[in-house]
Each structure stands twice: as C-alpha cells, then as structure tokens.
Amino acid sequence: MSLDPALLDANAEPARLNAQDLSLGYGRTSVIERLSLDVPSHQVTAIVGPNGCGKSTLLAGLCRLHKATHGAVVLDGRDIARLPTRQVAQRLALLPQDASAPDGLTVEELIRFGRQPHQGPLRQWSEHDQRIVEAALAAADLQALADRPLESMSGGQRQRAWIAMAIAQATPLLLLDEPTSALDLGHQIEVFELIRDLAAAGKTVVMVVHDISSACRYADHLVAMHDGRIVAEGPPAEVVTSTLIERLYGVKCELLRDPHSGTPIIAGVRRR
C-alpha cells in the first residue's frame, strides 16, 4: 500500500490534540475522571485496557461526540467545544466502531462522503476533490474495487474502504475505534499496515485496540487505561510488563520479544 502525502494534504500543519483534566460520564455515572493526555504528533497512539475502562468514551470525548463534564479537549490550542463543526471536521476525522452505510453504496461513493467538510455554497465538487478520492482509493489498495457495492466485499475490504473515506477527509488527525474488530488475522494485518503507512506519511493516528500484542507491534505510543484513568503511558516496549498486564486484565503471563520487531508478545496467559 502507498500513500501520497502531498495529494492527501498530509503536509498541512499537524494537529495538536490534548485532554486537560477531562471528566466524562453518562448521566450520574462517571466513566473518565480528571484525565490528562497529550497525543504525540505524526505517530500512532494505541489506547488499550479491559472492557468498560473508558477507551471508547475517551475517544468520543476527544472528538467532542461526548460532552465533557469537567476539563476540556484542546485542538490546536483552542477548546474543541467552542470550535465550528466544519473547522473540527477539517482537522480531525473519526471512524467509529459501528460504522454503517446504506445498501447499494459503492466504495467510491462512500469515500466521496469524506470530502463533505470541504464543500459549501461557494465550494462545489472539483477536480482536486476527485484527485483526493482517487488517492484515497490507492492508499487503501481499492482501485479495482471502486465500483463494488460495500455489502459485496469482505470485512477487511470494507474496513479499508471506511478508512479510505477518513483519509479523503484530508485531516492531519485520525481517531479509529477498534479498526480491526471482528476481522481475521490477515485482514487485521492489512488494516494495521495501512495505519502505519498513514503515520509514515505524516498523519497522527489514535486508535482503540483490544489486542495488546498488536498494539505493541503497530503503535509508537501506548496508553493503558483502567477504571477511567491512565495507569501507564509511553513506548510499548518500555511500558508493557507482566505486572501491567496483571493489573489491567487480572491474568498472569510471560512476555516474549518479537524476533523481527523486538516488541512485546504476551504468552503463557493464565488466571491469577
């Protein structure tokens, strides 16, 4: 897979995203408590942790889909809650876990939706928009499938199409909620390798990931969460330990090293 940084506007000023003393919840139920996070630019950040620890809630808060009960999310030095919707959509793209599309929609038609934040009464569809759509198709290795209906494609192909739509949005920042959920191993690798290509081309990616070994292999920065708080943060090879795994998931394990990447691999998992 390849990515054209110039064509996809990846050389635009990098987005700066951070959470400051952020609290999020549902009604009277608190999920995230006074959390602070600086997202490293031009890197892949993986958020990991057990079910219910607040990973997806944090991601929704970072893109203001979930309103903060305390603190703020700051995008490019400004409170994201105070920014116009179009301005946010031109800087930040979100791929939710439960993305869905109408029946009959083709791959190219889906990707064209990514250009909506750049359209308006004085800004109609242009040759530049079409070039970006074509570049997004190439980035996800989907040129041969551009006219295929989404429902006729495999899970991995559909997921690449959704990521291509986010690429076409031409934002410097991408938020992905479990981008490989329900995919087999081969399709997981396809998606993770595309994410690495995006970061190499200058994008900043934040993704929620369940599999620790995959997070270690494909992320530059790892954020481990438990009970709505960050309990460890940094390069995966430095922060992932058997003690951390036990704290997060309540299991014992041994850590091995991937012979190719040198990243941690979890082995010998057993109940505490």
Automatic annotation (TrEMBL):
Pfam families: ABC_tran (PF00005). PROSITE patterns: ABC_TRANSPORTER_1 (PS00211), ABC_TRANSPORTER_2 (PS50893). SUPFAM superfamilies: P-loop containing nucleoside triphosphate hydrolases (SSF52540). CDD domains: ABC_Iron-Siderophores_B12_Hemin. It is a peripheral membrane protein. Keywords: ATP-binding, Cell membrane, Ion transport, Iron, Iron transport, Membrane, Nucleotide-binding, Transport. Residues 17-252 form the ABC transporter domain. This is ABC transporter ATP-binding protein. SMART domains: AAA. Coiled coil: none annotated. GO terms for molecular function: ATP binding. It is found in: Cell membrane. InterPro entries: AAA+_ATPase, ABC_transporter-like_ATP-bd, ABC_transporter-like_CS, P-loop_NTPase, Siderophore_ABC-ATPase.
